[in-house]
Design brief:
Helix 17 packs antiparallel against helix 18. The chain has 26 helices and 8 strands. 54% of the residues lie in helices and 6% in strands. A hairpin with a 2-residue loop joins strand 1 and strand 2 (48-51). The protein starts with a helix and ends with a helix. It has helices spanning 3-31, 91-94, 104-115, 133-144, 176-185, 189-204, 217-221, 232-254, 285-297, 301-314, 323-336, 343-349, 369-385, 399-408, 414-427, 442-445, 451-460, 466-479, 483-496, 503-513, 517-530, 534-546, 550-563, 568-580, 584-597, 602-614, and strands spanning 41-45, 48-51, 73-75, 82-89, 120-125, 150-154, 259-262, 339-341. A 5-stranded parallel sheet has the order 5-4-6-7-8, sandwiched between helices. Strands 1-2-3 form a 3-stranded antiparallel sheet, with no helix packed on it. It is of the alpha/beta class. The model has no long low-confidence stretch (mean pLDDT 90).
Length: 617
């Protein structure tokens, strides 16, 4: 080998050695499960997926109590009759403070299931509290891999203080390119190891920050609390929002997936500015807010609306998206041909004087339950206008009727209503609503008056999980002779956690005891999908038989016998189904089998006499 070639190989080996080292290091770290699980989707059963509860660790380094989604489950392999929508955004998209039941995505789920009963409806909401467009952009490729029929985006309020925002304590700087690169690198265990080493070194030379572990997440996330209108940080936030949203819509367009995006709405009228200071030539926000109130009282609504919006934009604490964000949304929707819903205009249309306030808002920007239902209706109509709908049989409701029925039967409990109320009380008992020094003790702020209040309080004090709170009340109502309420709370649990098998026998047992056979059928059918067994198919067959649907009855009862072939009740009912089919010979054979298993089976003996007579025996 000549010197030139040897020199070339030397450089190749010199490059390959460190590359090989990091490849082996990465593989070793993965093999030994080093660090956290950053996968986007994790299995909840062998054939169901859910957003990884730990995925927020990609975006939060300084927060201990991580936010998570409302835990929607969907099929690992998309079924042929599936209609799959993904919802992306922050806390408003997640349905705060009514989580997990009160989001507009749950409204969509229930409305589509009602209108298209034969379709497999999957509305998967992966929105989380305190995240912004960095999170949406990072999660989007994984969403597109799941073959959505449509995507809905409602985001923008967290752009400054949300994870990695320019004003957040989790900020990694103002460069989008750098932040998005770091998010990509976080997928590698080697990078996580490096982060952990740096973090350990930093902790050795710094003291813990008490602000990171006390107060609401809202109060903890705002680092650069004061961001004046048109300041450098303000403009960086606008560029961050526009740049990330442009990337998001570009990716969705390339994937040829329909998308609907909503403009942002907040409490203009009844939320005074959080921080009001004079900045340069700009007036203080409180002065403009006072003028807006005066204009509203004088019924000069057009002027009042303009002033309320200006006061919001002058508010230096940017928990509400500035008006320019809606301008950006409109511009990008035109650029990418995206379906746009003016949520702000919708809320204004049903607000006094056309100005949104406490009539539809729980706080500074989160809608009341009625507001989320309005949003759900708007998104459903938008998708319908794009001809994006489930395939198969449809119940031909007018949109207004479908909306009214969905609202009427919306799955929501008194417990969830009280939890939402308590969440807002706690939120407003902290910065930025009040000086933290003036916080009321929780036992003064919240004084439970009944069992529901007490359970809601215990949930917020972390004595119960959401699931345990609802189970406790379900059991309480059953023990106190209120089976209807027991069924209501168990139904809510099944709605939230449809893959927990133990719920189904609990609810069907009570329904059967109270002769609510038709109501029990859908739970047997759901349970059968999760775990086919003799008990489910037996009762599905019996209920079908009661409706004189002998074909389904025969199918289900014969399937039941495949799992358990010694149940006399199954043979007896199957005989009844064959009687309806007018196959008396088969019916007699089954009746004889039922009696052989249960010699004193009075009903079977009576049926046998009738069959013998019909067959001339």
């Amino acid at each position: 080998m000549n010197k030139q070639k040897a020199k070339g190989w030397f450089y190749v080996v010199a490059v390959l050695i460190p590359v090989l080292f990091f490849v082996l290091l990465e593989l070793s770290l993965r093999f030994f499960n080093y660090g956290y699980d950053y996968r986007e989707w994790v299995p909840i059963t062998k054939d169901k997926l859910i957003l990884n509860p730990d995925v927020a660790r990609r975006y939060f380094s300084n927060v201990k109590a991580l936010p998570y989604s409302i835990q929607d489950v969907f099929d690992k392999e998309k079924k042929k009759n599936a209609f799959r929508i993904f919802v992306l955004g922050g806390s408003s998209a997640a349905g705060y403070p009514y989580m997990p039941l009160g989001s507009f995505s749950r409204y969509l789920q229930q409305r589509y299931q009602m209108v298209y009963p034969q379709a497999r409806i999957e509305v998967v909401n992966i929105a989380m509290t305190a995240v912004n467009t960095y999170t949406i952009r990072d999660l989007l490729p994984g969403v597109l891999e799941q073959k959505p029929d449509a995507i809905i985006i409602y985001a923008g309020h967290n752009e400054y203080y949300g994870a990695l925002g320019v004003g957040s304590m989790e900020s990694l700087g103002k460069s989008r390119a750098v932040v998005n690169l770091l998010l990509y690198l976080k997928r590698f265990k080697t990078f996580e190891l490096l982060q952990d080493i740096i973090s350990s070194v930093v902790k050795m030379f710094s003291s813990p920050n008490p602000k990171l572990s006390h107060g609401t997440l809202m109060s903890r996330m705002a680092r650069d609390k004061f961001i004046p209108l048109n300041s450098e940080v303000f403009e960086a936030g606008v560029k961050q929002f526009e740049g990330n949203m442009s990337d998001i819509l570009e990716m969705i367009k390339k994937a040829k997936v329909p998308v609907v995006i909503g403009t942002l709405v907040s409490n203009y009228k009844d939320q005074k500015p959080f921080v009001s200071k004079k900045a340069g030539e700009l007036p203080p926000a409180s002065k403009i807010y006072k003028l807006a109130q005066e204009a509203f009282e004088q019924k000069n609504y057009k002027r009042a609306d303009s002033l309320f919006r200006y006061a919001k934009d002058l508010d230096m604490l940017r928990f509400r998206a500035p008006e320019i964000f809606n301008s950006v949304i409109h511009k990008l929707a035109r650029k990418y041909g995206t379906k746009l819903i003016s949520i702000d205009s919708l809320f204004e249309s049903v607000s006094p004087g056309g100005i949104v306030g406490d009539n539809l808002m729980t706080d500074h920007l989160h809608p009341k339950l009625a507001g989320y239902e309005l949003m759900g209706d708007a998104f459903a109509r938008a998708l319908n206008s794009l001809k994006i709908r489930p395939r198969g049989m449809r119940i031909n409701y007018k949109p207004s009727v479908a909306h009214a029925l969905t609202v009427k039967h919306f799955k929501f409990t008194r417990l969830d209503s009280v939890i939402a109320d308590y969440r807002i009380r706690l939120l407003k008992n902290d910065y930025p609503y009040i000086d933290p020094k003036n916080k009321k003790p929780v036992n003064i702020l919240i004084q439970p008056k009944n069992i529901v209040d007490s359970v809601a309080f215990d949930f917020l004090m972390n004595k119960f999980t959401w699931e345990q709170a609802h189970r406790f009340l379900a059991d309480y109502y059953l023990e106190h002779g209120q089976p209807k309420k027991f069924v209501q709370y168990m139904d809510i649990l099944i709605t939230q956690y449809p893959v927990i098998k133990s719920y189904y026998p609990m609810i069907t047992k009570v329904l059967l005891e109270h002769h609510r056979y038709d109501d029990s059928y859908r739970y047997f059918a759901k349970y059968h999908e999760l775990e086919p067994n003799a008990y489910n198919t037996k009762w599905m067959g019996i209920i079908a038989l009661s409706h004189k649907n002998w074909k389904e009855a025969i199918r289900d009862l014969e399937e039941s016998l495949k799992y358990k072939d010694d149940d006399p009740q199954v043979y007896y009912n199957l005989a009844g189904a064959y009687v309806m089919k007018k196959d008396y010979k088969k019916a007699r054979e089954l009746t004889v089998k039922a009696i052989s298993l249960k010699p004193n089976y009075t009903e079977a003996k009576a049926l046998l006499r009738q069959l013998n007579s019909a067959l001339g025996r």
